[in-house]
Amino acid sequence: MYREVHEQGFGGARQSVRRWLSVRRHLPTHMVGQRGVRATPKVLAWLLENEASVQEPEREALRVLKASFPEVEQLAALGKTFRSALLRHDVDALQAWREAVQASDLTHLKAFAGGLDWEWEALEAACRLDWSNGPTEGAVNRIKLIKRQMYGRGSTDGGLSTRSANASCWLPESFP
Of 27, 29, 9, 7, nearest to 19 (Cα)? Predict the structure, then answer.
């Protein structure tokens, strides 16, 4: 294979071709693209899950991925730490995660952590305070639903005319 691509103008080393082939041989086709291994949402979810909860074929694919790219193991560990700290609202664990990322060689994760530095006070406040914008988001979502239904895009049940016909069920019985 190396001779064939070398004759076509490839100037890389044999090891590059060997690594490229070994990854593509053992990984499922949906994980491998033309330029390399794809970080699909499914693959990222496998990395963040507990290994026991991942099915055997996916677990084998992860083993091959981690063997082919050693930095994936470190990325998975840091991703799990970040997820766990966020779910527990643990600011000290987030700070320790941030320091571990800065000590790592993962440039993309360092860039992500650098972006969090800009909003660190907001992240700390989100972890420490019980405030939530959930009720506001729910109200906005309901208003958008009504608007879509008014214009006939929200459902197939007739839009504004159906909503107007059923308006009496929204009003209290004591309404004049």
Answer: 27
